[in-house]
Each structure stands twice: as structure tokens, then as C-alpha cells.
Design brief:
254 residues, alpha/beta, three-stranded antiparallel beta sheet, 11 helices, 8 strands, 13% strand, globular, binds BIS(adenosine)-5'-pentaphosphate
């Protein structure tokens, strides 16, 4: 496994540079992850980035990192966003799009990218399409992870995340070697605020209403690859690689 990129350019935005830059690839992969909250996108992102060399660009991680800023450092838009997030609601498109535009350098990274949690609505997908076109970049595929709701709720309630490096664990299915301690950086493992039952319900509703239509949006554009997200993380990872290798994205008839 390659050394993990610190993603400073993505997390901080603006002119921030990564301390450990991604290794340039001869054919950088440019992918989007879709799927309900808790389906395992972050877990797959970690495996895919380690295997294929691109960076995980998660909008949720940018907002969570903003929580660590002092009151004075937080812009009004970020303060607003944190309130939406805590309740499990989607952050307004305008805030998310500003955040992406401040990070255009990450889309141009020679290591490629894996967008996780963005786009989340059709207007966000349209804005991404326009931004990529203006940068003369093309998406390779959109990976749509699919799983029954009961399994998702089990995954979310047992999730623990490293407070420092953001690595993801599960109390029973992906436990850390030492309880409560991150395997990668020895940081403390914590439960996310939006994994509380009430916030999970709101997130699922937001997914059904705003994010599910993206499946059709990307299917129509010939970019969608649907991947069953049951089984062990490594099995799903190999399923994803197989789907990418034969990348024949689905048409409405499949
Ligand atoms: P975000 O951080 O994007 O969260 P999410 O989409 O709700 O997805 P999660 O991170 O909860 O789940 P995941 O699918 O990555 O699952 P994981 O791999 O951790 O967004 C958070 C909030 O930010 C949003 O609600 C919104 O408010 C705001 N926001 C962000 N982007 C936005 C945007 N573009 N527009 C508007 N608002 C935005 O897995 C879950 C658990 O399952 C883990 O414990 C894991 O160990 C376990 N697990 C994973 N795979 C397996 C497996 N195969 N078998 C068993 N267990 C598994």
C-alpha cells in the first residue's frame, strides 16, 4: 500500500499544497462514488485510492475538518453548513459549489480523483459537468453502490472514525487492532454526530429525495456502473475493479 496522501489541497482548499503529493499516473482515473449514507463509499474509497493511486475527495470530510477551526476562522457559509450537517440535512448547493471551485486544482491532479459525497443533487452534477468541461477533463465512470437499508443501518450504528486521519472502522465487521485506537495513526476513534438515529433518518430521506435521481442522470450519460455492496470490503473492492476493467456502463435497458 502506498503512503497515504495528506489531501491538504482538498481539505484546506485555496492554494494549500499536499505534503505527500499523489503520484502522477499515465492514465489518471477520474471517478465518482454514489450510494446511500453508510453503504460503504468511504471504505471503498480508501481501498481504491490505495490500489489505483488517486485521491479521495470527500465533501463530508471538508465540512468535518471545518469543525476543528476556531469560531473566527469559520466563514459564515461554513458555520451555516455545519448546522445543516449536524441535523443530517444536505448543505445548500451554493455552499458546496463554492467549496469545489476553491479546490479545482484537485480535479487537475495528475494522480486522478475519486469524488465521494459529491455530487449530491442534480444541480451539483450539472455544475461538476460544466467545471470538468472548462478544465478539459472527462469522468471515466460513476460507481453506484447498492445495499438493503437494514444492512446500512447496522453499518452506520457500528461505525467509528479516527478523529485525526479519518480512517473508518466498524465495531464488529472492521474492528481496530486495539479497541478505540486507530490502526494507522493511533488517533482516537469516535462516533460521528450524524450517525445518531434521528440524523440517520433525515440523511436517508435526503438521499431518496435529492441523490437517488443522480442514478438516472448518470445512466442516461452512459457513465453508471452499479455494484452490489454486500459482502466483505475486499470482495466489493474486487467487484469494483472488475466492473472498471470491463467498463461498459449501463444503459436504461440493463
Ligand atoms: P458524507 O460524509 O458524504 O456522508 P454520507 O454520504 O452520508 O456517507 P457516509 O460517510 O456516512 O457513509 P459511507 O458510505 O462512506 O460509509 P462507510 O464507508 O463509512 O456527508 C455527511 C454530511 O455532509 C451530509 O449528510 C451533508 O449534510 C453534508 N454534505 C456532504 N457532501 C455534501 C454535498 N455534496 N451536498 C450537500 N451536503 C453535503 O461505511 C459505514 C460503516 O460500515 C463503517 O463502519 C464501515 O467500517 C462499515 N462497512 C463498510 N463496508 C462494509 C462491508 N463491506 N461489510 C461490513 N461493514 C462495512
Amino acid at each position: 500500500m502506498s503512503e497515504k496522501n495528506d489531501r491538504a489541497s482538498w481539505i484546506k482548499g485555496g492554494q494549500a499544497k499536499c505534503c505527500i503529493p499523489a503520484i502522477p499516473q499515465s492514465k489518471p482515473r477520474r471517478l465518482v462514488l454514489l450510494g446511500a449514507p453508510g453503504v460503504g463509499k468511504g471504505t471503498q474509497a480508501e481501498l481504491l485510492c490505495a490500489g489505483l493511486g488517486m485521491c479521495q475527495l470527500s465533501t463530508g470530510d471538508v465540512f468535518r475538518a471545518a469543525k476543528c477551526l476556531s469560531e473566527e476562522e469559520r466563514s459564515p457559509a461554513i458555520k451555516d453548513a455545519l448546522g445543516y450537517m449536524k441535523r443530517g440535512e444536505l448543505v445548500p448547493d451554493s455552499t458546496v459549489l463554492n467549496l469545489l471551485r476553491e479546490r479545482t486544482q484537485c480535479l487537475n491532479c495528475g494522480g486522478g480523483f475519486l469524488l465521494d459525497g459529491f455530487p449530491r443533487t442534480v444541480p451539483q452534477a450539472e455544475a461538476l459537468g460544466a467545471l470538468l468541461e472548462s478544465e478539459q477533463l472527462k469522468l471515466e465512470a460513476v460507481l453506484n453502490y447498492d445495499l438493503p437499508i437494514e444492512t446500512i443501518v447496522h453499518r452506520l450504528s457500528g461505525r467509528r472514525t479516527c478523529a485525526d486521519c479519518k480512517a473508518v472502522f466498524h465495531v464488529t465487521t472492521r474492528p481496530p487492532r486495539v479497541g478505540g485506537v486507530c490502526d494507522h495513526c493511533a488517533g482516537s476513534l469516535v462516533q460521528r454526530e450524524d450517525d445518531r438515529a434521528e440524523a440517520v433518518r433525515v440523511r436517508m430521506e435526503a438521499y431518496d429525495r435529492s441523490t437517488k435521481p443522480l442514478i438516472e442522470y448518470y445512466r442516461e450519460r452512459g457513465l453508471l456502473l452499479t455494484i452490489p455492496a454486500d459482502g466483505k470490503p475486499e470482495e466489493i473492492y474486487h467487484r469494483t475493479l472488475a466492473a472498471l476493467a470491463v467498463a461498459q456502463p449501463q444503459t436504461a435497458a440493463t
